[in-house]
Design a protein that fits this description.
single chain; Arc Repressor Mutant, subunit A; 2 domains; elongated
C-alpha cells in the first residue's frame, strides 16, 4: 500500500531530477556553445547531457532561452572565481589574475553576448543581473587589494571595471586576447603605481 508520505516524496524526487537535468543541460550547452558556436545542434546537446530533446524543450522552449540560461551560468562562474582567488592570493594578485580570466572569459563568450543583445533589450533583466554581479565582484577585489595596501586607495572600483570593459572591446582579430591581457597588465601597473613596497613585503613574510 502506498502511503501519503511516499506519494509526497514522489513529486520532490521528480523536481530534484528535473533540476539535475536542467543543470546538466546548461553545463553541456555552455561547453558546446563555447566550442562550436551558438548555432550548435540542440539535439547533440540533449544527447550529450543524457536526456531526450523533449526534456530540453520542457526546460528551454527555444534556443534563446537556453542561451540566456548559459549566459547567466557563465556570469556566475566567472564571478565565483573571484572568491577562490581572494582566499589564496594577496589582493593585487587576486585582482590581476581575475582581470586576465575575465578577458579570456569575454573572448569565448562574445558571440553569445552579442546574440542576446540582438534579441532582447539592453535593459533586460539578464544584462542588469550581469552588470550588478560584475560590479559587486570588482568592488570586492579592489577593496581587498586596497585594504592590504597593494594598490592605490584613490581609485574607484567602477573606474577599474570601466577600464577593463574597454580592454575587452578591442577588435576581435587573431591574437587580440593576448594583447588585451597585456593591456590589462598595464592597467594593473597603474593601480599599483606609487604604492609602497613595504606592505607587500610584510604580506609575503607573514
Amino acid at each position: 500500500m502506498t502511503t501519503r508520505a511516499q506519494r509526497d516524496d514522489a513529486p520532490r524526487a521528480q523536481r530534484a531530477d528535473a533540476r539535475r537535468n536542467r543543470d546538466r543541460l546548461v553545463q553541456v550547452a555552455a561547453a558546446a556553445f563555447a566550442r562550436d558556436g551558438i548555432d550548435t545542434s540542440l539535439e547533440d546537446i540533449a544527447r550529450t547531457a543524457g536526456v531526450g530533446i523533449g526534456t530540453l524543450y520542457r526546460h528551454f522552449p527555444n534556443r534563446d532561452a537556453l542561451l540566456e540560461a548559459v549566459f547567466r551560468h557563465n556570469v556566475d562562474d566567472i564571478a565565483s572565481q573571484a572568491d577562490e582567488l581572494l582566499e589564496t592570493l594577496p589582493g593585487d594578485q587576486a585582482l590581476a589574475e581575475w582581470m586576465n580570466r575575465f578577458v579570456r572569459y569575454v573572448s569565448t563568450k562574445k558571440g553569445l553576448a552579442n546574440h542576446l543583445k540582438s534579441v532582447v533589450s539592453h535593459d533586460a533583466e539578464i544584462f542588469a543581473y550581469s552588470h550588478a554581479k560584475m560590479d559587486s565582484v570588482m568592488q570586492r577585489l579592489v577593496e581587498a587589494a586596497q585594504r592590504d595596501g597593494s594598490i592605490r586607495t584613490d581609485i574607484d572600483h567602477r573606474d577599474v571595471l570601466k577600464g577593463l570593459s574597454g580592454v575587452c572591446m578591442m577588435s576581435d582579430v587573431p591574437g587580440w586576447q593576448d594583447q588585451a591581457c597585456r593591456v590589462s597588465s598595464l592597467l594593473m601597473d597603474g593601480l599599483r603605481y606609487g604604492v609602497s613596497a613595504a606592505p607587500a613585503k610584510q604580506r609575503h613574510s607573514a
